[in-house]
Amino acid sequence: MRKRPYQNLIVWKEADALCLEVYKLLPKFPPEERYALCAQIRRSATSVPTNIVEGNTKRSNKERLHYLEHAEGSLEELDYQLSLSSRLDYITAEQYEELNNQVGKVSYLLNKFRSGILNK
Length: 120
Hints:
- The chain is mainly alpha-helical.
- The protein contains four helices and no strands.
- The protein has helices spanning 10-25, 37-56, 61-87, 93-118.
- The N and C termini lie far apart (31 Å).
- The model has no long low-confidence stretch (mean pLDDT 96).
């Protein structure tokens, strides 16, 4: 099977890894959160790598940057939702710390990726 171009992007690999880790935690949330906080977290977590993928297909830098801005916005939403989950004791402090570090890494990589596009 042929690799898609986005699969070579380090920023996408890290965002995808973050998304997978988040998905693994969601079944442990209380049932009453399934259609509330879990759904919001799921949307935010999947939006980050998805917007990187879609932006990578665009021909103009302006369009690419537009999708990367959406990815950054979704990452910030996810960061808040994970913080809330930690404060509600839905995830442990250790889980939050690991995810928070991963969010920081993806944020750094997104900023570097954006800078690279801006400097072209």
